[in-house]
Amino acid sequence: MSDILNSCIQNVQQSKAAWCHFITGNDTGLTGSHQAGFYIPKCASDLLFDKPGIKGENKEKTVKIEWQDDFTTESCMKYYGQKTRNEYRITRFGRDFPFFQDDNVGDLLVIAKFTEEDYKGYVLSTDEDIDGFFSYFNISPSETNQLINISNTIKPDEKITSLLKDFVSQYDKFPETRLMASGARECYNKAYNVNDNIIKTNPDGILLNWIDTEFKLFRYMEERVYSGVIAKPFSDIESFVKIANEVLNRRKSRAGKSLEHHLSDIFTRNALIFEEQAITEDKKKPDFIFPNGECYHDICFPSEKLIVLGAKTTCKDRWRQVLTEADRVDVKYLFTLQQGISKNQLKEMHDSRLVLVVPHKYIQSFPMEYQREIKDLYGFIQMVHESQKNLPKHYFMT
């Protein structure tokens, strides 16, 4: 789910009234209409005024609309009731309003009302965002241009909490890490209506959301497994220490494997050919080899088509491990959730021909002069796609 769609859904849920509508050429003024602005049907008049307009009278009010969580317009809510007119409109967006272009025709406009003077507006442009919005509020494209029924929707946090608790209730002890990771993904995807297209277009954001969800799932599982144990007095210090160490060790071991499992699922959904933990020289096992270990050991396979990726939640002290895991590959990649590394270490990585891959929003946490050298997950996936073009099919048989 994109950041804009997520914010849009949350604000619609919290609003007093909300409305959606596919932008037309008439709205933008591109058809030669007398003014650019959005026509509001009478059934959605509550979006504009606390009381319906009275035929024979005009009325208007100035409001602030915050668009895309980014900029604000002082717009005008109008009712035209004089003479033959009987309609509502939102006008006055300013010359530089970015959504009155030809490319915006067909985008989904969403406006949410919080007070009589304060609104939020969103324009959803991608198919994934539009489909995600419709799926979340259970409306069809033919049901736009009317108020959104938000009374029967379950908030995302409530829905995912219910799904996580349902998952935990199936187990009396911790399931293995791959099952925990897949359970977290399934809960998140179901709660937020995430499909393969969304995962392909926003892998960086989806990965972080999956990881956050698994942390929540893990805490619920800890409560289920250990609540009965810690409720009873410990017979001695050794018993207490044993349980404490068990909890801490499980937390440490889960995090690293969790990252690998989520990356693996994203790579699979993006139709990449890869192998996890393939054996290279001296029984080393890189986290991911693209296309696979068989290609790595085939001396006829071009080494420039081989890509090796390590995965470590943090890497300030452990990044050098990746350098020794695949002798045939000159440039190696390391995916990490680390936010920020010193210039000295980044220079050392650069000199060692190691390229960092981090979630897109983390790139800004690194020194400016090194940001261009860092890839985000989406960029890494596109690079692998390119490397796997036009290769004989027999290389991809596993």
Overall description:
The protein is an alpha+beta fold and 398 residues long. The protein contains 12 helices and 13 strands. The protein has an 8-stranded mixed β-sheet. A hairpin with a 6-residue loop joins β4 (71-80) and β5 (87-91). The chain is globular, with a radius of gyration of 27 Å. The two termini are 32 Å apart.
Write the layout of secondary structure elements.
Elements lengths: L2 H12 L2 E6 L2 H4 L9 E3 L18 E9 L3 E10 L6 E5 L16 E6 L4 E7 L2 H11 L8 E2 L8 H13 L8 H15 L4 H6 L1 H28 L6 H33 L5 E2 L11 E3 L2 H5 L9 E6 L7 H4 L8 E5 L6 H9 L2 E4 L19 H11 L11
Parallel strand pairs: 3-7, 11-12, 12-13
Antiparallel strand pairs: 1-6, 1-8, 2-5, 3-4, 4-5, 6-7, 9-10, 10-11
Determine the structural class based on helices, strands and strand pairing. Answer: alpha+beta
Lateral strand order in the biggest sheet: 2-5-4-3-7-6-1-8
Note the total helix count: 12
Q: Considering DSSP H and I runs of 4 or more, what fraction of the residues is helical?
A: 25-40%
Mean model confidence by pLDDT: 85
State the order of secondary-structure elements, H for helix, E for strand: HEHEEEEEEHEHHHHHEEHEHEHEH
Q: Give the beta-strand count.
A: 13
Radius of gyration: 27 Å
Instruction: Report, as a whole number of angstroms, the end-to-end distance.
Output: 32 Å
> Which ranges are low-confidence, i.e. pLDDT below 50, for 5 or more consecutive residues?
none
- DSSP strand (E) fraction? 15-25%
- Principal-axis shape equals globular
Task: Give the biggest beta sheet.
Answer: 8 strands, mixed
